[in-house]
Amino acid sequence: MSQTKPHTVQTIPVILASGLRATAGVAEGDAFTFADELVMDDTYQMPADEPRQRLSVSILPDGAGFEVAANSDLGKAGNALFLDSCVTLMARDSSCYEMLVLVEVEDGMAAEIYLLPLANLQANVEYQLVGVDRHSATARFAEIACVSFSRGTQITMASGEQRPIEDIRVGDRVLTRDDGPQVVKWIGHSTVRAVGSFAPVLIKKGALHNENDLLVSPDHRIFVYQRKDRLGAGRAEVLVKVRHLINGETVVQQEGGFVDYFQILFEEHQIIYAEGIAAESLLIDPRTSAAVPVDIGRAVGGEGRAHKHRRHNDYEVGESLITGPDAIKLLKRASSS
Description:
Blueprint: E1 8-16, E2 21-24, E3 43-45, E4 53-59, E5 66-68, E6 80-91, E7 96-106, E8 109-117, E9 127-133, H1 137-145, E10 149-150, E11 154-156, E12 162-164, E13 173-176, E14 180-183, E15 186-193, E16 201-203, E17 214-216, E18 221-225, E19 237-241, E20 251-253, E21 258-265, E22 271-274, E23 277-280, H2 294-301, H3 327-334
Antiparallel strand pairs: 1-4, 1-8, 2-3, 3-9, 4-5, 5-6, 6-7, 6-9, 7-8, 10-21, 11-12, 13-14, 15-21, 16-17, 16-20, 18-19, 22-23
């Protein structure tokens, strides 16, 4: 009997398309919509601060697509979700902002349209629609999910050497928590604007026993072994997304300018050591595979271009267990006492 492959679930902060309306142009008065009905040069505006809401996306195995997950705050569980397009908006000062458009479909009809801004849109500011790309949305969605280390991050090599991530090459051996020395199969690199979903999170020196600052992508998961279960997770080993640890003091999100991101890939998904913190390597799944060269994905994950499920992926704890400014302090105490 074959086993059903587990779905990957990602929770993303979106706004409803109804919260962004055309103030001038062909669609004046109408809400933002999907690519086929958009008109270039129309102007849009959010009349007030539109709150980001949580949409949980279930990423189906073997590239079968996306659907609304069972625990989502928005949408109907099981409804199909389609990445419609990546649009570009331009403010009056010529600054450009990208936004992904997702369409929820029920019984063959559009049930809801969600917008995932890749940078923060301001209320009462007019934005002109200057670009609609139907082909790049999947890749941009994948880039958000790719866990990344920033330039200068010291990685523990198999020899014990501390080496900056940008100096690691394919074929080098890195120390992993579960499998000892492992060979690097691919290193990815991108330079992006440090805004919105791409703004890195800084874990300051000492916040989690780290000897230096650690700067990583927001959805990067760190591994903590709790000597005492202070989180109430019911187990000693936990994976925590760094964006859930932001407290404005010892863990902060840094917006502005640009950030150099590096992704490190192994034959299997691994826990490695960055600035002394145990953190995950790139996980290839149906969402992130679009950001990895096809030949590399197949070499690592086979024709399905996905890593096999590993036990440590079951250790992730939800945001409900780590809310509040003291989460990082709890984890620090839990790992040392």
